[in-house]
C-alpha cells in the first residue's frame, strides 16, 4: 500500500489487517501529507519517496500479490502553482510503481484516480459515468488521468492486470485536516478550532458526493480480488450529491460553531456527483 500514512492508505491497511489476517501488509510513504501515527503497528513500513527513490528491493523481498497505489498529493486548487511538484509526485511515482508491478509479476495493481478527471459537470443532478470522456480542468486532474492512461497501456503491452477506482470527496478517521488546500470538511474543522471564519468560495451551491472512508474500504478490497474488476475503471463513493451550503449547515449543527464567510469564486467544477451503477455491478 503506497500512501499508507494518509487517509485512504491507513484505513485500508487497518481494514485488511482486521478482515484478512492471512495477508501481510507492507506500506510505503514519504510522510509528506500523512503521519506515521496513522500507520497500523502490524504494517511493515518503509519511508520512501516514490518519485525519486528505488523500491525494487521491497518488491523483490515480498513478492506482492496486490499493490494499492494511493500515494499522491491531492491539492487541486494549488496544482496550477506547483506544476513540477504535482507531476513529479503523481506521475513519476506511478511510473515507479507500474515498472515494479510489471517486473515482479504483481497479480493486480489497484490505482486510486480521482473524480476530478471528469472535469465540468453539465447541470445539477448530472452524474459522472465511467463512459464519459475525461476533460480535466487543472494540473492535478491531468496528472491523475495521465496515470490512468499509462496503467492501461502497461496492461496492453506487458499484461499487467489493473483496476482503476475513482473515489470522490473522501473524508473520515485519520484524515489530515491541517492541509489548507484539500478537503473542505478538514479546512472547516481547523478554522473552527482556531476561532476563524469558515470559508465558502462562490455561492456554495457546488455539489459533491461526500464519501465516508470506511464505507469505501470493502469496495477497494473487491477491486483487487474480483474478476469483474479486472481492467475496469470504477467510481467509488457517495451516491447522492450535497451542496457545500448543505454540508456547512450539517457542520454547524454538529459543532455549534457558526461563523461563515463567502469568498470569491474559484476555478472549480460546479457539479460533481458519480454514477454508482458500475460499482454496484462490478464491486458488489
What would your notes on this structure say?
36% of the residues lie in helices and 18% in strands. By secondary structure, it is an alpha/beta fold. The strands form 5 sheets. The chain has a 4-stranded parallel β-sheet, sandwiched between helices. Strands 5-14-9-12 form a 4-stranded mixed β-sheet. Strands 1-2 form a two-stranded parallel ribbon. Strand 3 (66-69), helix 3 (83-103) and strand 4 form a beta-alpha-beta unit. The radius of gyration is 18 Å and the shape is globular. The model has no long low-confidence stretch (mean pLDDT 93).
Concise synopsis of the structure shown:
The protein is an alpha/beta fold and 284 residues long. The protein is built from 8 helices and 14 strands.
Summarize the helices and strands and which ones pair or pack.
Blueprint: H1 7-19, E1 26-29, E2 44-47, H2 56-62, E3 66-69, H3 83-103, E4 108-112, E5 127-128, H4 139-158, E6 162-167, E7 170-171, H5 184-193, E8 198-201, E9 207-208, E10 211-212, H6 213-225, E11 232-236, E12 242-243, H7 244-255, E13 260-263, E14 271-274, H8 277-283
Parallel strand pairs: 1-2, 3-4, 4-6, 5-14, 6-11, 7-10, 8-13, 9-14
Antiparallel strand pairs: 9-12
Helix pairs in contact: 1-6, 3-4
**Beta strands, count:** 14
Separation of the first and last Cα atoms: 22 Å
Low confidence ranges: none
Chain-averaged pLDDT: 93
Amino acid at each position: 500500500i503506497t500512501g499508507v500514512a494518509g487517509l485512504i492508505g491507513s484505513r485500508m491497511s487497518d481494514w485488511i489487517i482486521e478482515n484478512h489476517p492471512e495477508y501481510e501488509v507492507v506500506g510505503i510513504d514519504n510522510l509528506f501529507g500523512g503521519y506515521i501515527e496513522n500507520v497500523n503497528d502490524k504494517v511493515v513500513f518503509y519511508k520512501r519517496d516514490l518519485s525519486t527513490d528505488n523500491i525494487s528491493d521491497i518488491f523483490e523481498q515480498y513478492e506482492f500479490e496486490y499493490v494499492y497505489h494511493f500515494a499522491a498529493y491531492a491539492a487541486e486548487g494549488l496544482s496550477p502553482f506547483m506544476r513540477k511538484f504535482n507531476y513529479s509526485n503523481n506521475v513519476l511515482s506511478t511510473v515507479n510503481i507500474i515498472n515494479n508491478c510489471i517486473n515482479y509479476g504483481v497479480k493486480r495493481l489497484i490505482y486510486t484516480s480521482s473524480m476530478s478527471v471528469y472535469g465540468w459537470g453539465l447541470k445539477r443532478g448530472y452524474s459522472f459515468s465511467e463512459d464519459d470522456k475525461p476533460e480535466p480542468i487543472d494540473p492535478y486532474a491531468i496528472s491523475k488521468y495521465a496515470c490512468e492512461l499509462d496503467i492501461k497501456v502497461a496492461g496492453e503491452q506487458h499484461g499487467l492486470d489493473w483496476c482503476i477506482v475513482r473515489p470522490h470527496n473522501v473524508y473520515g478517521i485519520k484524515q489530515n485536516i491541517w492541509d489548507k488546500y484539500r478537503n473542505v470538511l478538514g479546512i472547516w474543522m481547523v478554522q473552527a478550532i482556531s476561532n476563524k471564519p469558515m470559508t465558502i468560495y462562490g455561492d456554495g451551491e457546488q455539489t459533491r458526493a461526500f464519501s465516508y472512508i470506511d464505507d469505501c474500504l470493502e469496495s477497494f478490497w473487491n477491486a483487487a480480488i474480483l474478476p469483474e474488476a479486472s481492467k475496469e475503471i470504477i467510481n467509488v463513493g457517495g451516491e447522492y450529491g450535497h451542496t457545500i451550503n448543505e454540508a456547512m449547515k450539517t457542520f454547524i449543527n454538529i459543532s455549534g460553531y457558526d461563523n461563515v464567510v463567502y469568498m470569491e469564486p474559484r476555478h472549480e467544477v460546479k457539479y460533481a456527483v458519480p454514477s454508482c451503477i458500475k460499482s454496484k455491478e462490478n464491486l458488489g
